[in-house]
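WARN no homologs supplied; continuing
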Amino acid sequence: MKDFKEFLLRGNLVDTAVGIVIGLAFAAVVTALVADLITPLIAAIGGQQDFSALKFRINGSQFLYGSFLNAVITFIVIAAVVFFLVVKPVNHLMAKYKTEPPVDETVKKCPHCLSDIPLAASRCAFCTAELGTAVA
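OK structure emitted
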């Protein structure tokens, strides 16, 4: 029982569970946004909101290409909403409030072959070009 308790209270398990719950709640918000606002807007512009009735038959087989079209449109709209309303703003905030110090470069590019070589190198290990005096 002690091992099971330790497993349940392990930090990464709790973090994962919280992430999944928040992700599901966020998915519900995005789905509602797309279904209740974006899709009716597209229908107002395009004239038809639901394509699931579109189909064709070949030798008695029915192809419901309208359902596939609905799924593709829904995916593209959800991806666009997530990108423009979540990813872009978060990337902007992360760049604006960057807290980590700049990385100290330990390599440089060879001007001849563009390979990464150590800063102290006086000759490229890849193309053997002479680089001049080494940086100490």
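Strands lie at 56-58, 61-63, 107-109, 116-118.
OK
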